[in-house]
Each structure stands twice: as structure tokens, then as C-alpha cells.
Amino acid sequence: MFEAIIPGTDGRELRMKCHAKPEKLHQLLLDQLGFTLPAQPPPEIRNPKPVVETF
Q1: Could you say which of 9, 17, 32, 54 is the most buried, measured as most Cβ atoms within 10 Å of its Cβ?
Q2: Phi and psi at residue 28, to the nearest 5°
Q3: What is the pLDDT of residue 53?
Q4: Average pLDDT in the 13-29 region?
Q5: Could you give the angle at the alpha carbon of 34 between the alpha carbons of 33 and 38, nearest 5°?
Q6: Which of 3, 17, 9 has the alpha carbon at shortest distance from 47?
Q7: Which of 17-21, 25-29, 30-34, 45-49 comes out lowest in average pLDDT?
């Protein structure tokens, strides 16, 4: 899993968490253990710092 953070020109950030698909051997092991991986979460738009207008 990794998280990509893309800064916007207006001060906001687009955050996307991405899961890799397991290889066939790993998926077999997960299936035997009864584990399921979580669904891909939707992207988020955050405003980490307030946007201040300058004159």
C-alpha cells in the first residue's frame, strides 16, 4: 500500500491510498488463512493549511 499526495494550486491536496493486487501465491495463502484485503478507499481532498488571500 502507498499513499500519493498531489498538491493543488489552491492550497488543497488530493490524497489517494492505493493497494497493490497480491500475486497468485500470496492470494492462495490469504485464501487459506481466511483473510480478505480491504476495498480500495476513495480519494480525499484536504485543505491542510488555510488559504490566505494577499493583496
Answers
A1: 17
A2: -60, -45
A3: 65
A4: 89
A5: 115
A6: 9
A7: 45-49
